């Protein structure tokens, strides 16, 4: 049976799609939920995963066909920006906006794409080395100087695109930054390294190993790898605001934004809170916009169970403190 919040969401979506105006308290209200307007081969099966935001604009990707949706914080509906399948982008997972460039990780395709957010033109394309080993490019983080880091949940590898090499004229090999083999971070069965963030000083990355519920600090100068002490969180997507880390965590049908206070060097942390919301439906990741978090509702549970999904949405919640 469809959960009650899905029934409300379906009714809301129907009103939007037939052009009925949903009343708001004032013209300055910002929606607390955004509908992804179905399009392309994904049709009603978008199953979104990643999100990126800059200013009032946000982008969300479909894992089904690679469509990238673009929304505005003040509009309740996000519409297709980049069509699924274009440029070989048949799945869109983690993504980040830096300046006028949107970077998109392609999941099991082993691809990374870069697009001009003003024109939609492809400006860069990379592919993991074709060894025959399974790959799943999952999340992306950009350092203060513009280096692009990409996680792989199946290969024990962290990739880096130098800030000097963010444009290509053809598909190039995705450069390896760090091989985790022999470090404190050991890959096991299942999805390993998932979300990634870079500290404001550019010295460290923090990554989430989802299947062991462990966070690790990676030195971006010396390539050191150390567990973040005091924290157990099965993080998917990560968001960093100063020394406050937000980790999106799914536990069955219940999803949380886990707030972690990191120490100055990101060597240890303390879980401050676990926040949920009635609109969450298998949340995967988030993006910080002002004092709010935009949280993607993937409905991966429905896909795994073979159930009919409800309308696909992004929830906006106040960022926990």
UniProtKB/TrEMBL annotation:
Listed A to Z, the keywords are: Signal
Q: Which domain of life is it from?
A: Bacteria
Output the lineage of the source organism: Bacteria, Bacillati, Actinomycetota, Actinomycetes, Micrococcales
Organism of provenance: Cellulomonas xylanilytica
| Signal peptide segment | 1-27
Q: Can you name this protein?
A: Superoxide dismutase
Q: Does the keyword Signal apply?
A: yes
């Amino acid at each position: 049976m469809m959960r009650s919040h899905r029934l409300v969401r379906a009714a809301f979506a129907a009103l939007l799609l037939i052009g009925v105006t949903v009343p708001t308290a004032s013209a300055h209200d910002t929606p607390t939920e955004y509908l992804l307007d179905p399009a392309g081969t994904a049709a009603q099966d978008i199953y979104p995963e990643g999100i990126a935001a800059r200013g009032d604009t946000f982008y969300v990707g479909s894992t089904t066909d690679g469509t990238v949706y673009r929304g505005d914080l003040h509009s309740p509906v996000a519409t297709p920006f980049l069509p699924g399948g274009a440029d070989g982008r048949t799945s869109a997972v983690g993504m980040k906006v830096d300046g006028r460039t949107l970077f998109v990780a392609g999941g099991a395709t082993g691809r990374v794409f870069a697009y001009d957010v003003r024109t939609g033109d492809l400006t860069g394309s990379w592919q993991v080395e074709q060894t025959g080993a399974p790959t799943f490019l999952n999340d992306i983080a950009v350092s203060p100087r513009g280096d692009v880091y990409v996680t792989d949940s199946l290969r024990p590898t962290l990739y880096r695109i130098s800030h000097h090499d963010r444009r290509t004229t053809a598909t190039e090999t995705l450069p390896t930054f760090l091989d985790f083999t022999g470090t404190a971070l050991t890959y096991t069965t299942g999805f390993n390294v998932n979300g990634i963030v870079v500290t404001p000083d550019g010295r460290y990355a923090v990554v989430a190993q989802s299947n062991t519920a462990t966070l690790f600090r990676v030195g971006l100068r010396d390539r050191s790898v150390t567990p973040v002490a005091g924290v157990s969180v099965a993080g998917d997507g990560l968001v960093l605001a100063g020394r406050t880390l937000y980790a999106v965590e799914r536990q069955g049908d219940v999803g949380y934004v886990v707030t972690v206070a990191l120490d100055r060097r990101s060597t240890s942390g303390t879980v401050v809170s676990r926040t949920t919301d009635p609109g969450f439906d298998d949340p995967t990741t988030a993006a910080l916009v002002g004092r709010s978090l935009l949280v993607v509702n993937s409905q991966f549970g429905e896909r795994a169970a073979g159930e009919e999904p409800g309308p696909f949405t992004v929830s906006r919640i106040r960022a926990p403190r």
